[in-house]
């Protein structure tokens, strides 16, 4: 019978206890003592690719031991773009001084005394940053209510361009409130802003965004074309004496430009035409009814507000009251009189 054998399917760098059993037709007997043997080391298997936590200018690299080390790991070697950048027993390494959002090829080699094995190659990126600079948008006024906005892509994007945002403010709010008028991931380089107010100064700025944040441009200025005013208010006529009025009014709800003059009409006749928003009318008759209307003008034209009516205050009657009597009998007298002159 055979007195030698080959043990197959063993694992590298593993301790085994081997016993021998001898058998006859009557039965089997196992050896009293086991033979302790150890398999030698081999090169590692299943070496894992390195991973990284990305920052804009450096990578915090890390890796795990091979799933099947096949021995004692004596050294790791990390390659970046084919060049070894680290050798040692550690499982972390910081790759410094690299460019923002740049791809690099990494490969890890793990070694035992018996040999070395490479991981799969992996591509890792540094993190994104906001674009370095974005030029102010170019504005073209199309009419009294529309502005056409154009812009250029940032020269240094520092990542993947994600979206553009347009902010707008106007002089009616003292440029203190900025509203988002456009926010799109469609990376067009122009946009038409509709439904603006005529004769209004606008500040418009642009933001370009990546996964690392947004950069906002300087603001550009545009003034929409003027138009005739809208919402001209009714004047307020107050009489503090029997022969005069104090008349005042406010700006139109929508000036649609720079108001050049206000015209005040009393009883259909232009009483005052100036930039003032008040007027004093005197020499009127007590308790007399008058109509008032305000006209507001820009360089593009004029608009009239609603008509209001008001009376001057009452005053004491003036003139003699003539009384006439007629005797109708011993007990009756008929009286008649005429109204005062005023």
Walk me through what this model shows:
Pfam families: fn3 (PF00041). Residues 43-129, 130-231, 232-319 form the Fibronectin type-III domain. This is USH2A protein. This protein is mostly beta strands and 342 residues long. The chain folds into three domains: 51-125, Immunoglobulins (Immunoglobulin-like), CATH 2.60.40.10; 138-223, Immunoglobulin-like (Sandwich); 228-342, Immunoglobulin-like (Sandwich). 0% of the residues lie in helices and 47% in strands. The chain has strands at 15-18, 21-24, 27-30, 35-38, 51-54, 59-62, 75-80, 83-88, 92-95, 103-112, 115-118, 122-125, 138-143, 146-150, 163-170, 179-184, 190-193, 201-210, 213-216, 220-223, 236-241, 244-248, 261-266, 269-274, 278-281, 289-298, 301-304, 308-311, 323-327, 333-337. Strands 7, 8, 10, 11 and 12 form a five-stranded antiparallel sheet that branches. Strands 15, 16, 18, 19 and 20 form a five-stranded antiparallel sheet that branches. A hairpin with a 2-residue loop joins strand 18 and strand 19 (213-216). The radius of gyration is 48 Å and the shape is rod-shaped. 21% of the residues are buried.
Short description:
This protein is mainly β. It has no helices and 30 strands. The mean pLDDT is 93.
